[in-house]
Fold:
Amino acid sequence: MTALFPQATPAPFTLDHDLLEVSMGPHHPSTHGVFRMNVTLDGETVVKLTPVFGYLHRNHEKIAEQNSFLAAIPYTDRLDYICSMTNNCAYVLAVEKLASLQVPERAEYIRVIVSELTRLFNHTCLAGFLLQDMGALGTPLMYAFREREHVLDLFESLSGSRMMCNFMRFGGCRCDLPAGWIEQAATVTDRYSLFLDEFEALLTDNEIVRARTEGVGVLPADLAVNAGVTGPMLRASGVNYDIRKVDNYGVYGRFPFRVPLGEHGDTFDRYMIRILEARESLAILRQALREIPDGPVIDPKAKLRNFRPKPGEAYGRIEAPKGELGFFLISDGGPNPYRFRIRPPSLINLTILEDMCRGHTIADVVVILGSVDIVLGEVDR
Amino acid sequence: MQTLQQLKPRIEAAIQGVSLEIIPNGSPANPPSLLVDRPHGRAVAEWLRDDPETRLDYASNVTGVDWPEKTVKEKTRVRKSIQGLDKEVEEIVEKKTPGFLEAVYHLYSMALKHGPLVLRLRTENRSDRAALPSLTPVWRSCELQEREVFDLFGIQFQGHPDLRRILMWDGFADFPMRKDYVPPADDDPGRPNP
Amino acid sequence: MLGRAIIQGFIETGRNFVGSYYDPERLTTVQYPEQTLPPDEHARTIPFLVYDGDDPSQGLRCTACTICELECPPQCISIVKDTVKKPDYLGKMQLQPKVFDIDISVCMDCGICAEVCPFDSIKMDQVFALSTGDRQALLLHKEQLAKSNLYFRQIHPGEAAAIDAARAEQKRKAEAKKAAIASAPSGFPSPLP
Structure:
């Protein structure tokens, strides 16, 4: 009987597949802004990833060529729109290098205090955003934002605006600290220290966070150096390069802080480095709030209007919370800059996004992108 | 780090036929820059990265600069014959310095913690011969930044793995950061008129 | 134990949840628009023009020097000078603006206009409920921008008090100088002894 109906040997089971191209398009809740990635997938594994930029391009560099040096300061607020104080500091540092202006000590201490407060909330909010991308639905993010509100209240009473501060001027700061600001800042710092303990208890040992971030998105140190990666991402790969220590700009030489370094270069290291750096920032803040001297807050020889630096060029850079933020200025003696170039840390940290994501699943792409810490205002300018 | 005066003879000894020039900086507190001729750009970059005393392994910033052509008027005395008599007459002669596009590289060393060294490469003119060697094979950080310089200035980088527009959309025709760029006429028709 | 840290995380969120019922540090939501927070003294939004006294057309401090128009980063201020002059608080005749328009759809609230004004006439306001349906209504004219010095004292008490004190001092000095000139003998130099 079986000879009448021979059993055909079944064909070997193959799933006939092509590569799938997904556009993780500009409208996406997890791409930190209008950022697009064309991801080519083999099943769920990433084979190729092409980032597409330019959705927020406002040509800040050309606008700055048409306005005076002073008028470019409010535009620098809007680059990395979360950390406006450090953007102002970087631009003003570049102009001070170009025009050889001196900054009084009180203004330098105010710059350190304000920059470290910015670094604090930037790193905790980044941890919040990373957890939200992983699916924590906003709880750590809202805790981080709740603490950030206290710092924004400080910025509002200092500069007039919560986010777009426009506070630094060439040769110092725009105005002095109001009465009671230092005490309020000390209270905020103490609260932040308790909050960081709570935050770490919530997140660092969490099994889900560890499982999703350990070993994901490894960045080897030599590739990081060659690709121009800076900031916490570089230090997570084990390279000891912090511009506050290397260039010693401002009065950072007076603060003995440690530079945390990572061992593996994966996403968990990048998250952990930021928490450790936040703790170091708290130590710097406590010292600065204690030691801030009295005095003027702006160089008396600095001009507000009709500021014409002599022809020449200068490159000024700081350790912004996201990486190395640099401004390259060429002046031709006129009131407007001849060339105003912004070196955006977020754009250059994205150079090796494809290298980090290849071989991982598409869910990991979101986590890796979250750990790079980009803000599209800076990527596209 | 050694100064440019000390580095210049070492590079000239290491790379045959290179022509270097030290461009002073108008503001003396800031470093002068090293202008390298186009054919040897990549060789000089590799030497700077690999030399054990400089070890410039980190290209921090790539900038494009547009220098349009400048007309300078000069007064010269010229002998001319007017009505049969030889006379010396003052004439105003116009001299044109040709325009070019420039790429400025800021190089630092993460291994030895020094810098910056400012490297410059210049094109021949601003129109049809605007090509420079790409330094992306030497430092990967130049990849996106050279794409941006190409997009906004029009410098063609030869040897770049993926040279296409990055910030403007793909069909865009002009180069926005050039000094003679004219933006489209009415960008914002709904704006209230004062 | 697997899951120990997740349970610890639940304790943290539980602490925040339960604490939000009695601890104001844990529940920080303000039920806007039924509740509002008072703005900080130094907070700023769009600019406004200050006038002294009751009549905006007479007491407007602006002298149409156009410094704010030149320094404004997005170029949102338009000024047209008037040919008629009017006296300022010291009695000196000054120009005045015929047209002073600010396009608040362009204004970036940076405060540079208030910083560079030499006459303390343009200052930063604190209003933020400015949305309208008509884009032309976002172009504010001189009449809409002019607000009295009493309003300025209400929103920025420290700054207004300092400016009023400085102006009163200058007025006092000017009047003292005028009185000294009036009571001095007529301009012939006194004869040498």
